Structure formats: C-alpha cells, structure tokens
C-alpha cells in the first residue's frame, strides 16, 4: 500500500472516531427513551434491551405535550416572521445606502446579537411587566425578534451588497416602482439568504431557554423549558428527558435536513 493510501485511510478512521465521539451522547439519550427505567443504568451495562414506550406514556401523563409543542411553534414562527419583516428591508436599505457609516451600522447591529442573554434579562423582564405581556409567549416573540432582526439585517446586508444595483435600475427604467424593484427583483435574487435567515432565526428561537423560562407562565411554556423538569432535586429522570428530547429535536432536525442546501449557502455565500 502506498503512503497516500495510508494517509487517506487514517483520515477516514479519524473522522469516524470523531463522529462516534460526538454522536454517542445523543444516541445514548435517544435510546434511553425506549429503555425500561431499570435498564438505563444497569450494571453491567447492556446494549440489548426490549424497547418500550413507557417513557413516552409517562411524559404524556405528566405534561401537556401538545401545549408545550404549540408554544414552541408559536414562539419560533412568530419570531421568524417578525425578524424577517424587520431585518430584510433594513438590510436592503443599508446595502443601498450611500452613507459611509452603513457598514459600521451593520456590524453594530450584529454586535447586538452578541449581547449575553442574561445581561439583558432584567431590563426585558421589567419592560414586559410594564406593558402587560409578562407571562405570555408574545413577550418571548418580541425579544427574540429584536435580537434576531439585528442578525438578519447584518446577514442580508451582505447579500444585498453583493447584488448588482443595475438589476433594480433596469426594473425602474421599465416603469417599476422602488418597492416593486425591491419586491420583484432584489428579493428573489437573494432567496437563498432569506431561507438561511429563516433557519438561523428558527434555531435561535426554538432552542431559546432563558427568556421563556422567566417570561412565560405554566400554560405558555415551550418544550425547551419543559426539559428542565426532568432535573429533580435528588436525581435526573433520564427516560423522561430522552422522551421529551424527541419532541424538542425532531421537528427542527426535519426542517434543517429539508433546507440544508440553503443553510450551507447562507454560511458561506452571504458572509464576505
């Protein structure tokens, strides 16, 4: 065997080991949902067990799973729609601005998304309390939209800046209005960036824990907060955690797999 062949075999073996290392905890948690409680930490450990749905029956008995799922969907969907409605036009306006401060403003908005959530929690909490939204999922939508729209503005600024303005000028010459040139020419040309923004905002909002934890009530809490219920004062109910993780993970993974091509383009094409 040649040296090149050995190097290629070594790289593949290394990738397989790293893949197994990082996926092992998720695989263990997923299989835990189908194990009897007595088999989760059996000694000696066994990989052969009789699958059971007892853990799923337990979470449906202890939680209103459909209410948790509905709150997660409402928070994620509302945050995505509002973030795009604010961030996409703002990114376009900055990209077409003649101001020398446009790029600085775009990166300043990006810096807003980097503020630690815990640092902004108390001001947001007091603000939502004063306007009467404390305890509702709408309060989380507003906060996520404010943070995510800054990120959308920054990302779409890069996309629109890479779009030749001659396309819109040609549309204006043909009698199109400024709004029509934006809506019919610019937006379709950056659709990959918009879908990438949708995926980013969806992941940020779906997995958000801190703000829903403190700003929602029992009836408006999402799945990300319900996962904490598996942690008791004396032990951790791993079976409950594994079963709830299915409902928290599978919807977002399906969306990511379905739109994976646009997600990769958003990471590589729009940032320059």
From TrEMBL:
GO biological process: transmembrane transport
Matches recorded under CDD domains: TM_PBP2
Pfam families: BPD_transp_1 (PF00528)
Mode of membrane association: Multi-pass membrane protein
Residues in coiled coil: none
Highest taxon listed in the record's lineage: Bacteria
Cellular location(s): Cell membrane
InterPro entries: BP-dep_ABC_trans_perm, MetI-like, MetI-like_sf
Keywords: Cell membrane, Membrane, Transmembrane, Transmembrane helix, Transport
Residue stretches making up the ABC transmembrane type-1 domain: 69-259
Residue ranges of the TM segments: 72-95, 107-128, 134-160, 181-206, 236-259
GO CC annotations on file: plasma membrane
Family to which the UniProt record says this protein belongs: Belongs to the binding-protein-dependent transport system permease family.
Protein name (record): Trehalose transport system permease protein SugB
Organism encoding this protein: Martelella mediterranea DSM 17316
Gene name linked to the record: sugB_7
């Amino acid at each position: 065997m040649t040296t090149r062949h050995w190097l290629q075999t070594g790289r593949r073996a290394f990738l397989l080991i790293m893949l197994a290392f990082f996926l092992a905890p998720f695989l263990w948690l997923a299989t835990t949902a189908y194990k009897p409680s007595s088999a989760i930490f059996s000694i000696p450990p066994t990989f052969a067990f009789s699958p059971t749905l007892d853990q799923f029956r337990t979470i449906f008995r202890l939680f209103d799973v459909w209410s948790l799922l509905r709150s997660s969907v409402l928070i994620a969907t509302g945050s995505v729609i509002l973030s795009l409605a604010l961030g996409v036009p703002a990114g376009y306006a900055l990209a077409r601005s003649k101001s020398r401060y446009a790029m600085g403003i775009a990166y300043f908005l990006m810096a807003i998304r980097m503020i630690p959530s815990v640092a902004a929690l108390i001001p947001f909490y007091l603000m939502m309390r004063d306007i009467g939204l404390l305890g509702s999922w709408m309060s989380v939508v507003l906060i996520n939209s404010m943070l995510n729209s800054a990120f959308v503005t920054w990302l779409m600024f890069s996309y629109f800046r890479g779009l030749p303005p001659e396309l819109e000028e040609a549309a204006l010459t043909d009698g199109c209005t400024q709004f029509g040139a934006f809506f019919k020419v610019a937006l379709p040309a950056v659709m990959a960036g918009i879908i990438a923004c949708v995926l980013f905002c969806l992941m940020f909002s779906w997995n958000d824990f801190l703000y829903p934890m403190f700003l929602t009530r029992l009836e408006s809490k999402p799945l990300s907060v319900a996962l904490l219920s598996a942690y008791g004062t004396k032990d951790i109910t791993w079976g409950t955690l594994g079963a709830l993780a299915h409902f928290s993970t599978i919807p977002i993974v399906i969306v990511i797999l379905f739109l994976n091509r646009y997600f990769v383009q958003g990471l590589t094409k729009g940032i320059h």
